[in-house]
Amino acid sequence: MLIVYYSQSGASAALARAAWQGALAADAGEVRVARSWDAGSRELLAARGLLLVGAENAGSLSGGLKDFLDRTFYPVSAQEHVIPYAMVISAGNDGRNARRLAETMLSGYPLTRATDTLIVRGEPDAASLQRARELGEAFATGLEMGIF
Ligand SMILES: Cc1cc2nc3c(=O)[nH]c(=O)nc-3n(C[C@H](O)[C@H](O)[C@H](O)COP(=O)(O)O)c2cc1C
Q1: Measured between alpha carbons, how far is 65 from 55 in angstroms, rounded to an integer?
Q2: What integer pLDDT is reported at residue 61 of this predicted model?
Q3: Is the CB of 12 under 6 A from ligand 1?
Q4: d(Cα 53, Cα 98) in Å, to the nearest integer?
Q5: What is the pLDDT of residue 15?
Q6: Cα 120 to ligand 1 centroid, rounded to whole Å
Q7: pLDDT attached to residue 109
Q8: Ligand 1 center to residue 48 CA distance, Å?
Q9: Given this model, what pLDDT does residue 125 score?
Q10: Which of 13, 30, 76, 89 sits between 20 and 30 A of 123, alpha carbons compared?
């Protein structure tokens, strides 16, 4: 499982960390974490599942995650590497536009959505970090069991 995140303020990074801890708790195979700038098609082609974590910026998916998806589209499509994905969006007060745009964009990728996208509004608190942790754990468990 590969977790790719992009964060400016640390909010998305905290959610990615929580999801990573959940995935580790599932004890269901290797979990790799990478900042979006450090990840590319090689990491994605090696993964059995992708968890994206990033913000809504100006009503869209944050540039770092968009860049990662743009860079990996051709290599991953060419390999027909179809894997499940899940997503956590950090937002100030909305997040729905980023979710809609990202899910539309991803529907054209060789990625299938495994779970409902989690939107966290405002600074992540203990409850939202717990939700991110649970999402990471459930996604990792589902991947290991082959249910996605
Ligand atoms: C340039 C910019 C644009 C933003 N646009 C939105 C927006 O359209 N909707 C929203 O709900 N929050 C918006 N926000 C707030 C961020 O989504 C929110 O602070 C998020 O937690 C940032 O996470 P990150 O810093 O870890 O990437 C924006 C923040 C920035 C810096």
Answers
A1: 9
A2: 96
A3: yes
A4: 11
A5: 98
A6: 11
A7: 92
A8: 29
A9: 98
A10: 30
Which residues are CB-neighbours of 47 under 8 A, at least 6 positions away? 1, 2, 32, 83
- Asked whether the whole model's pTM tops 0.70, one would answer yes
- The per-residue pLDDT for 3 is 98
Within 10 A of 13 (CB to CB), how many other CB atoms are there?
Answer: 19
Q: Is 72 in the pocket of ligand 1 (CB under 6 A)?
A: no
Length of the chain counted residue by residue: 148
Ligand 1 close to Cβ of residue 27 (< 6 A): no
Task: Give residue 13 CA to ligand 1 midpoint distance, Å.
Answer: 13
Helix boundaries (H) for 4-107? 11-26, 41-45, 63-78, 96-107
Q: Which residue has the tokens 């913000």?
A: 55
Domain ranges of the chain: 2-145
Tell how far the Cα of 58 is from the centroid of ligand 1, in angstroms: 7
Pick the CATH number of 2-145 from 3.40.50.360, 3.30.70.260, 3.40.50.2000, 3.30.1330.10: 3.40.50.360
Splitting the chain (148 residues) into consecutive groups of 10 residues, what average pLDDT does each group show? 98 98 94 98 96 98 97 93 96 98 93 97 98 98 94
